[in-house]
Amino acid sequence: MIACEPMIPLARDEPFAVTEDLPAPLPGRDPARMLQHTRAQWGGRGDLWVFGYASLIWRQEFEAAEHRSALVHGWHRALRMRSRVNRGTPQQPGLVFALLPGGACRGVVFRLKRDSADAELERLWAREMPTGTYDPRWLRAQTAQGEVRALAFTLSRRSESHLGRLGDEQMLHILRHASGRYGSTLQYLASTAHALRERGVHDREVQRLMALAAAHGLL
Fold first, then answer.
1. What stretch of H or E contains 76?
2. How many CB atoms are closer than 10 A to CB 127?
3. What's the CA gap between 46 and 117, in Å, rounded?
4. What are the backbone dihedrals phi and psi of residue 122, each rounded to the nearest 5 degrees, phi first?
5. Is residue 85 part of a domain?
6. Under a CB-based contact definition with an 8 Å cutoff, are residues 77 and 53 in contact?
7. Is the dihedral of CA 122, 126, 131, 132 positive or negative?
């Protein structure tokens, strides 16, 4: 029998709550309706699995009964999503990771118990979907204990929040200067890199960005 991994400690001292400084929801992307649709897809008939690939790995804002290392195909982790509040400002946008089409991604799946999953999903929605930027999807996640169907927050390349590939000078400028209400883009990148390293996940692009920051004295 393969033992489940121990629970990751929760951090609830600085909740990702919706505040007045958030921009308005994007046109045609009502977060409440998107949540209603996702709830209907889940159905409430069993536990709810959520796939984490960046900050959800190192800072959950929900109660999880279990977590497992997981692999999803057809999507990859990329520091390509513009952040104007959490890790940057409108004047100096920062970056956060998003799940983009293509490749594969190793991360963590979290199991939310059915009796509390609805409330935890609403809390998660307030953190991830205040403006409706992400496209919530149900992905097939492979784990050592078998496949699970997990909710993941993906990003369309057509989204106004998606950035194309940045040159190293552009990336270094953001890492030096972008900071928002939850800290800097550099701190966010370093925390994600540390969490992945602790779990034995080797992400070449994350490692390259960390090496780039170190080479220019940012770490």
1. strand 66-83
2. 19
3. 9
4. -65, -40
5. yes
6. yes
7. negative
